[in-house]
Specification:
about 70 residues; mainly alpha; about 0% strand
């Protein structure tokens, strides 16, 4: 290629950014529904919140057990 590394990086960034402009309406609606469902569960008390540290410790313990 005749372009410099900086020029190629800039073009690659522009191409990747252009992909973010395309929104799939069905996917967007599905995410909005999922977000609403999770908010409803949180507000109604259906889900139990645990501290990040506790969850991370559980994940580490599970990873050790499964490896």
């Amino acid at each position: 290629m005749m372009l410099s590394l900086t020029e190629r990086a800039r073009i690659a960034e522009e191409l990747l950014t252009s992909l973010d402009d395309q929104v799939d309406e069905d996917v967007e609606k599905a995410w909005q529904a999922e977000i609403g469902r999770r908010i409803d569960e949180a507000e109604s008390g259906l889900v139990e919140f645990i501290p990040w540290e506790e969850m991370f410790a559980t994940l580490r313990a599970n990873a050790r057990t499964n490896s």
